[in-house]
UniProtKB/TrEMBL annotation:
GO terms for molecular function: glycosyltransferase activity; hydrolase activity. The keyword Transferase applies. It comes from the Bacteria. Keywords: Glycosyltransferase, Hydrolase, Transferase. This is Glycoside hydrolase family 130 protein. InterPro entries: Glyco_hydro_beta-prop_sf, Mannoside_phosphorylase. Transmembrane segments: none annotated.
Length: 328
């Protein structure tokens, strides 16, 4: 049996798999957990990330305003379901040449040692990956942007690997990115990034057409005794536009650019009304996952139709099973 390497989190959000349900991931019965008007000025709250913090949870949330400006906001919760999100965006401390804001969206949060690192798509002469850290979710210190434009979906690993910080990302372009493969990069200090290695790409043809247009890393990789579980998004271009679904892959523990397993079937797709109807229809976009090492439980936070935030559940065994039964 595959085991999660990490902390126990017995009070994390959870619902048991419904009787007779056969899919590997199931939705929280009271979705969406964050509505589009969660703050006084928000048009939508989605593609956001959370972590355990103190006696509850904290997170960084993408809240597009009613003027449709894109920025990220801190929030807190006692139970991981009911959230209080700040009404003003995060103000980053740092070099004024770096903290200049064009836009900010799609954050991830990763705890490494005693700091919480935030990565996001940062507008700096085009989309690139911003990096910052906090200890209290009140004061945020911005570091150098990880890469030159154009890049999106920067996701840190939760510990050093062979003495190096590592990050997954998806090099892109200045537009809506009609392509996308996942790469892994290394850094000795979270400033200088190199040793870029290709991880995996899209799947042409109909072997796994749901991820034929582009893919990108989602939640912070989950360490297990068999490898790093990567929950990611994949996109197909249909006659009615893009459709975003979730997939899962298993990366090598010591060389995480090497893929050990990958499911050809998606694990969650837009089916519910709040996933299919919104500012951008037909989107399920994972950005965070809580885990409980004792039980193998996983709670996935995901953006729905670029409008609201949903919560879904699975286990490490469910994800391993889908890769075994439907290998790519």
């Amino acid at each position: 049996m595959t085991k999660i390497i990490g902390q126990a989190n017995p009070n994390m959000p959870w619902q048991d798999k419904p009787a007779g349900y056969t899919e590997p991931v199931w939705r929280y019965s009271n979705n969406p957990i964050i509505q589009r008007n969660a703050t006084p000025i928000s048009n939508s709250v989605f593609n956001s990330a959370v972590v355990p913090f103190e006696d509850g949870y904290a997170g960084v949330f993408r809240c597009d305003s009613k003027s449709i400006s894109m920025d990220i906001f801190a929030g807190r919760s006692k139970n991981g379901i009911d959230w209080e999100i700040d009404s003003t965006p995060i103000v980053f401390e740092g070099d004024p040449e770096v903290t200049v804001r064009e836009y900010r969206y799609d954050p991830r949060v990763c705890k490494i040692d005693d700091r919480y690192y935030i990565t996001w798509c940062n507008g700096a002469h085009g989309p690139t990956i911003g990096v910052a850290w906090t200890e209290d979710f009140k004061t945020f210190h911005q570091l150098e942007n990880a890469f030159l434009p154009y890049n999106r979906n920067g996701v840190l690993f939760p510990r050093k690997i062979n003495g190096m910080y590592m990050m997954l990302s998806r090099p892109s372009d200045t537009g809506h990115t009609p392509f996308g493969d996942v790469f892994c990069s290394q850094s000795p200090d979270l400033t200088f990034w190199g040793k870029h290695r290709w991880v995996m790409g899209t799947v042409p043809g109909d072997d796994s057409a749901w991820q034929s247009k582009k893919i990108g890393p989602g939640a912070v990789p989950i360490e297990t005794d068999e490898g790093w579980l990567m929950i990611y998004h994949g996109v197909i271009n249909t006659c009615n536009g893009f459709v975003y679904r979730m997939g899962v892959a298993l990366l090598d523990l010591d060389e995480p650019w090497k893929v050990k397993a990958r499911s050809r079937n998606y694990i969650l797709a837009p089916q519910e009304l709040y996933e299919c109807v919104g500012d951008v229809p037909n989107v399920t976009f994972p950005c965070a996952a809580l885990t409980d090492a004792e039980t193998g439980r996983i709670a996935i936070y995901y953006g729905c139709a670029d409008t609201v935030t949903g919560l879904a559940f699975t286990t490490v065994e469910e994800l391993m099973r889908v890769m075994r039964e439907f290998p790519l």
